[in-house]
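Notebook, student rotation project (T.W.).
Task set for the rotation: take a protein with a known small-molecule partner, predict the structure of the complex, and write up what can be learned from the model alone. Partner molecule chosen: 2-oxoglutaric acid. Sequence and SMILES entered below by T.W., checked by me.
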Amino acid sequence: MDKDQIFFKKNGYLLKKNLIDKKFIDKINKVVNKVVAQDKQKNKNKITNGTQSYDNYHFVYNSNSSKNKEILRLNNPQNRHKIFYELSRNRKIISIVKKLIGGSVRFHLGKLNFKLPNKKKGSEVAWHQDWAFYPHTNDDLVTVGIYLEDCTEKNGPLKIIKNSHTKRLYSHHSNENFFVGKIDTKKNKIGFKDAITITGTAGTVVFFHCRSIHGSGHNKMNSSRPLILFGYRACDAWPLINDGNPHPEVNIENYNKNIIVGKKTVKPRMTKVPTIIPLPKKKHYVSIYELQK
Ligand SMILES: O=C(O)CCC(=O)C(=O)O
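Predicted structure of the complex:
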């Protein structure tokens, strides 16, 4: 094992400051500004919700009313914009992912979280484990977060509880037993002394294990905090549920097209992992924000 693998195995995350070139980040930001402006124009007088399209590309808003509507997230930008696709396949990112999840890599999901500015008081993300949303036959899954702008303590950075990936899978269900996508930290007496704040300049990349407890707080600044999150899984980590992302039972060809490193297989690797199926849900939801409300 090299030093990154040792650190990740022990702590459940790995931080690489300035991994992505600033020029490339600037190019991405140009595309982001363009698609956001286009969406604003398109939706000026229309009431639309984040409905899912064939490639699961859609905006997620904080409200359905056209007056108060602000963009919280762009789902799966890599399916429509070449530059996001390129970023999701970036050599530096993939070579790290590959060594962290055991040698094979299949792309899983993409989202660009904006986190609303201070005055909008929005888009805090409650503590959760991504694994609770999409259990697999083994837990060789990693989430990669890339800041598109500098992120300090004041921007509502990601926070990760180190070494939580080796411990329990907490219930993400409510008292009424609906899946709500967040942990009751009081009830579970979760302490935050091991919470690491992930800050960094644009182009900083964090890798975290699918079972690491994480979340993010309030953005105290007057601008949004764009963070791209990409999910990757080992080729033989077989999903136990359809989470709305490429799924073998929906379209096996497309599922296999998402292999970046390794070979297709219909033999899942089974390991002893804690799992809770994220069902039932109160209603169909399109984002973590709606679910955690
Ligand atoms: O945007 C953030 O700060 C965290 C989001 C997150 O953890 C998620 O979408 O699963």
